[in-house]
Specification:
The complex is a heterotrimer of chains A (539), B (284) and C (335). Chain A is of the alpha+beta class. Chain A is built from 18 helices and 21 strands. Chain C is globular, with a radius of gyration of 24 Å. Classes of the chains: A alpha+beta (539), B mainly alpha (284), C mainly alpha (335). At the B-C interface, helix 5, helix 6, helix 9, helix 10 and helix 11 of B face helix 1, helix 6, helix 7, helix 9 and helix 11 of C.
């Protein structure tokens, strides 16, 4: 209440959110008066405020330092890019760019930018800002940098004129456009002013805002989260109703988030919830649960370089051992849908007729009997520490293995540790249970990065899988521009991969968004997980 | 003071008797687990269809997130808890007591150095070092035991060291030395029996303490890996399902409570019987 | 003079003990199999970038050289840089220490405020129903797994009754930091709503932490009062007609608290240790959660920094206890 009242500096408040000492005394008398009359301080209700409880930390608000779903709210609300993923199924829309063209050799991308788009400090967004932003991404080497580095070298982005920017790729790439939205445009002049020892303003931008997005940063504390206030001059304009202020707060415990939403402390919460929790939220009367098809595949990746998992019959046997229905329907309460291939059911390029493997212990035993190699040691199943779902999947898998006489160990490994272990075949676990989310809505995000032999050892590829046929198909797909032709190539690659069983694919996530009942205008997109707040408002 | 006398004394003290009974109950549960559990397969087998069922005739204490019977898992969990506690405290005894005896008797620089090493370990709360060690080695029963014994031996070393140092100047020991009794015989026949009482008391209290620390490691995800029915981890799993599955954490929590309380009461009782000196200072 | 000698002797041991502790923790934390360089480089970094960073951070040099370097840094008051937060560890710990101290002090306050009167009443009505009840409760308090107690309290007070928040230190953004104690800062900022929120958040974790401490305080107070009640001066005062209540609460208590006070000093260290687990359950942003997260992230600079900190506080607490004991009880040396 008080914080809203004091949200702007004025005679009452020396700083936003803080009462000056002079204000304290009259404030008390006012409070007493208000209490006596049974009135709330005036003006409190006028602001539409939205509080979101996120499952992970906002340790930085630098848009070029992260490329994950956990911190996506920073990038989508405070910053803009040339293009943006919108809606579901995700469409790539021109954003700050008006149009783009691709040269006939597929190597040069030219974007015409809108005129008159303003940064939060009132200066205009120019082509030079885009160039600086890409250079900054490549120089800092964080977030989406590795993907960009595989396509473009520093110095190859050029401002043709004030509002035209061109990128010259090292080789044609069908997915460059898909990741253009990750070039979040920062105010080059402002960042340069705050550079320290050539750090590209990294220290400053991790705590400050230099964007043009629909909201501008008002308050940030790495231990709490951030607050954005509406940027009235945003180039997209605003509807009749909107949120004046958005707060994204890190609340790591699921129960705290659920209870907070039901009590009205939060207006939206993140994270993947259990069936019982969703039921409780819907029953509370205060909140509702939106849902949408999404693209986030839960899977097990097998290390295919080592016995016995270098044997295709063993890998197939393992695919028959997991109780898919028991997991999807009982443990997750039917919140998810079986996804039999590495590609999400909902994306193009996924062969619809492939039904994959089912839970069948007899078939598993038969495959195992066929196998040339015998399983003579316990297999190691690694799940992600702190992610209960991956642990439960690992346990259920272990249970299935035990039933066909295969011993295994279930081990929890934190994300950074497991990613490091993936880098070499010798250290990669036998079996790793985790998810691949939508970093960009293109089949390459899954099958391309997961199974091309050149990607072995990255966080998306713990298979260390090498199949020249698959490599050739994927190479061709990434250099082809026609989507129908690419779809065919990805379908073929997917068939080969499923038959070869270098992994086991469990489900495709459905998205459930718990929100306050009065909140409207939430638009879900698999890339932003509905955290772009520009269109939301209260009834 | 004979064994029978100690037992008689313990049984006559109501709270010590309660402790003894609690400890014996848990030991019996661990030994007879296959007989008294209703779903012995629950230790490894899962039935997702029966997930999170409340207590009923079929599942006495309800089921967990994998559809396994919590009652049977808690019973089998007693084995893990007791093995960790017995082996870890036993190892700490085997390391700590000889070091304390030797360092206390000889007052040689190596002994002093060892006591300084034990000071280093005592300078930080046990759980802090245990977490660091368990995390380094990876979660398993063996590593929990290792972490706990590495961090617990200094307690015994310190205790024995202090006792031996004060005993050395007792008349009967000085007399034995003067009479030329071999040193090894003095230590084994005269010193050791006299430090036995505080060691026994410390062991019983240490069992309770070690069980709590081991459970905390399990709770933090550093204990026995799944599907082992480790009590601390069962409680940690249950957090996500509160308040709906209120029964989930109940049984493992009460089990930890009962066994720790048992060892603590027994320890207090033993102190009263074996070490009347301490009795007044602590409690009555 | 004796006290000064004692302090001197203890301080003399302080340095080698601390150095030994640092060495132990250093070797433990450097064996953690994860690669700190890979973590810092980011999830999509190439292998070459990780190697380059490893060299830059000096992680490729022999362990002993790294240890000596660490000592050198420590002498300058530098605990290294956290690989995870990318801030100096000393700064991180200092920023989080007030949260832990606030929690620990609140727990201690609860334990003393409830524990001493309970101990006295229990002793004066020895073997009454109340005495038996208190004795059972103290044994129980020491036998409960703190994280389980935390869950039970959360279940009752936060989830079922909805009176108190489940986790965290305050709802939303904290008042401007002056002392680092959320409650005080809220008052300084004149924000009573924030103050109420801070207190509400403090209650459950402090209660959980206070239970074993409370049990200890009760036990020692009770034993101390029982001992003192048998002393001749009590019989004498009783005989000359001083009211019983005055005797107990003034004269007896003062005498009986000697051992309790030394226990309270020790408790502070024990509470700090308990905070590691309790803070994790309540997501309390103190040095306990910091340490736990650092261990999970293989953030070895942060792990060592925490252990040095915790060890330092623990050792200082022990030193103070010895001094207090020596000055209160001039008869004997330290126990």
């Amino acid at each position: 209440m008080l914080s809203r009242w004091c949200s702007r500096p004025g005679p009452w408040c020396s700083r936003p959110g803080q009462l000056s000492r002079r204000a304290v005394l009259p404030f008390f008398s006012l409070l007493a008066l208000a209490a006596g009359l049974g009135l709330a301080p005036a003006g409190a209700a006028a602001q539409a405020r939205f509080v979101f409880a996120n499952e992970s930390d906002y340790d930085t608000v630098d848009p070029h330092a992260s490329f994950d779903v956990g911190r996506v709210a920073v990038r989508l609300n405070l910053y803009d890019g040339l293009m943006r993923w919108q809606d579901n199924p995700a469409r790539l829309e021109p954003w700050i760019a008006e149009s783009h063209s691709i040269s006939s050799d597929g190597k040069t991308y030219t974007f015409k930018m809108r005129k008159g788009v303003k940064f939060h400090d009132g200066s205009e967004v120019k082509a030079a800002d885009v160039v600086y932003s890409l250079e900054r991404i490549l120089a800092l080497g964080k977030g989406a940098a590795a993907l960009f580095k595989s396509m473009i070298e520093p110095g190859k982005a050029k401002a043709i004129d004030e509002n035209t920017v061109a990128f010259e790729l090292s080789k044609p790439s069908a997915i460059f456009l898909s990741i253009v939205p990750e070039i979040h445009i920062v105010n080059a002049a402002l960042v340069k002013k705050n550079e320290v020892n050539g750090d590209w303003g990294a220290a400053w931008l991790s705590k400050n805002d230099a964007g043009s997005g629909a909201y501008k940063l008002k308050q940030f504390d790495p231990a709490i989260g951030f607050v954005g206030e509406r940027f009235a001059a945003h180039f997209k304009g605003w509807g009749a109703k909107y949120l004046d202020e958005i707060e994204f707060r890190a609340v790591k415990d699921t129960n705290t988030r659920v209870l907070g939403l039901m009590k009205g402390d939060f207006n939206g919460i993140g994270g993947y919830l259990q069936t019982d929790q969703l039921k409780r939220i819907e029953a509370s009367g205060n909140a509702k649960v939106l849902d949408a098809e999404s693209m986030r595949v839960m899977m097990m990746q097998f290390n295919t370089t080592r016995a016995p998992l270098n044997d295709v019959d063993v890998r197939r046997a393992l695919n028959y051992v997991f109780d898919y229905d028991g997991f999807n329907k009982n443990i997750l309460g039917g919140l998810v849908e079986r996804n039999p291939t590495p590609l999400p059911n909902t994306i193009w390029g996924n062969p619809k007729d492939v039904t994959g493997y089912s839970f069948d212990l007899d078939k598993a035993k038969a495959e195992l009997a066929k196998a040339a190699s015998k399983i003579d040691r316990p297999l190691e199943i690694h799940f992600l520490t702190g992610f209960a779902q991956s642990e439960q999947a690992a346990q259920l898998f272990q249970n299935g293995l035990q039933k066909i006489g295969v011993q295994s160990k279930v081990i929890g490994t934190p994300w950074p540790t497991i990613v490091e272990r993936f880098s070499k075949p010798e250290t990669t676990p036998d079996i790793s249970v985790y998810w691949i989310s939508t970093y960009y809505a293109d089949p390459h995000n899954w099958i391309g990065e997961m199974f091309h032999s050149s990607g072995a050892g990255t966080f998306k590829n713990a298979h260390h899988y090498k199949n020249p046929k698959v490599d050739a198909l994927l190479d061709k797909a990434v250099q082809t521009t026609d989507q129908a032709a690419r779809a065919k190539l990805y379908e073929e690659a997917t068939r080969l991969v499923v038959a070869d069983a270098p992994g086991l694919w469990i489900y495709n996530t459905k998205w459930y968004g718990p929100y306050s009942k009065k909140l409207q205008g939430i638009v879900f997109c698999p890339i932003g997980n509905a955290q772009e707040m520009r269109t939301a408002y209260y009834e | 003071m004979g064994f029978a006398h100690v037992i008689r004394q313990l049984v006559s003290d109501r709270s010590a008797l309660l402790g003894l009974v609690l400890v014996l109950l848990v030991v019996l549960a661990a030994l007879l687990a296959p007989l008294i559990s209703t779903h012995p397969e629950a230790v490894w087998d899962m039935s997702p269809a029966n997930r999170l069922k409340p207590p009923s005739r079929e599942w006495l204490l309800g089921t967990d997130r994998m559809g396994a019977d919590i009652y049977s898992r808690v019973i089998y969990g007693a084995r893990i808890t007791l093995i960790i506690a017995f082996v870890a405290v036993g190892a700490a005894l085997l390391i700590g007591v000889p070091i304390g005896l030797w360092a206390g008797w000889h007052e040689f620089w190596v002994g002093e150095a060892l006591m300084r090493v034990s000071d280093v370990f005592l300078a930080v709360p046990q759980i802090v070092l245990a977490i660091a060690i368990a995390q380094t080695l990876g979660p398993s029963i063996e590593n929990v035991i290792l972490a706990l014994s590495i961090t617990y031996w200094p307690w015994f070393a310190r205790l024995v060291y202090a006792e031996v140092r004060s005993l050395k100047h007792e008349t009967f020991i000085e007399a034995a030395i003067a009479l030329g009794v071999p040193k090894r015989r003095i230590v084994v026949q005269h010193v050791l029996p006299n430090v036995l009482s505080p060691i026994i008391v410390r062991t019983s209290i240490g069992m309770g303490f070690t069980i709590l620390t081991a459970a905390a490691l399990g709770f933090l995800g550093l204990g026995a890996p799944p599907p082992a029915p480790e009590w601390g981890r069962m409680i940690s799993e249950s957090r996500e399902f509160l308040p709906e599955a209120w029964w989930y954490a109940l049984a493992p929590g009460l089990a930890i409570f009962a066994v720790v309380m048992g060892f603590n009461l027994l320890g207090d009782g033993l102190r009263d019987v074996l070490d009347p000196r301490l009795r007044r200072a602590h409690d009555r | 003079m004796r006290i000064l000698a004692l302090i001197g002797k203890r301080l003399l041991w302080f340095v080698p003990t601390a150095a030994g502790l640092i060495a132990v923790v250093f070797f433990i934390s450097r064996v953690i199999p994860a690669d700190p360089a890979a973590l810092l480089a980011g999830e999509t970094a190439s292998r070459e970038a990780i190697e380059a960073l490893r060299v830059k951070l000096g992680l490729d040099r022999p362990l002993l050289v790294q240890l000596l370097d660490y000592y050198r840094q420590l002498l300058k008051g530098d605990l290294g840089t956290s690989l995870f937060t990318t801030r100096p560890v000393a700064e991180d710990l200092l920023a989080r220490l007030p949260a832990t101290i606030e929690l620990t002090l609140a727990a201690m306050l609860m334990a003393i405020a409830v524990g001493i009167p309970l101990g006295v009443v229990s002793a004066t009505r020895r073997n009454s129903l109340l005495d038996h009840g208190v004795r059972i409760a103290t044994v129980a308090g020491l036998a409960m797994a703190s994280f389980w107690l935390a869950l039970v309290l959360q279940l009752v007070f936060a989830m079922d009754l909805g009176w108190l928040p489940l986790q965290g230190r305050i709802a939303g953004f904290p008042p401007p930091a002056v002392t680092g104690f959320m409650t005080l800062d809220a008052l300084i900022a004149g924000r009573f709503d924030r103050f109420a929120s801070a207190i509400a958040h403090l209650l459950l974790p402090a209660m959980t932490l206070a239970v074993p401490a409370l049990a200890t305080v009760v036990r020692f107070t009770r034993a101390g009062v029982l001992d003192t009640l048998e002393k001749p001066f009590v019989t004498y005062q009783d005989a000359i007609g001083i009211p019983r209540a005055l005797i107990v609460w003034k004269y007896v208590l003062r005498n009986a608290l000697t051992s309790t006070i030394t226990q309270i000093g020790l408790l502070f260290g024990i509470l700090l240790a308990g905070a590691v687990v309790i803070e994790t359950v309540f997501q309390w942003p103190g040095i306990g959660t910091y340490a736990f997260e650092a261990i999970l992230q293989s953030d070895y600079a942060a792990v060592m920094g925490f252990t040095v900190y915790a060890g330092g506080i623990f050792m200082i607490a022990n030193l103070l206890v010895d001094i207090a004991h020596a000055s209160i009880d001039p008869r004997g040396g330290h126990a």
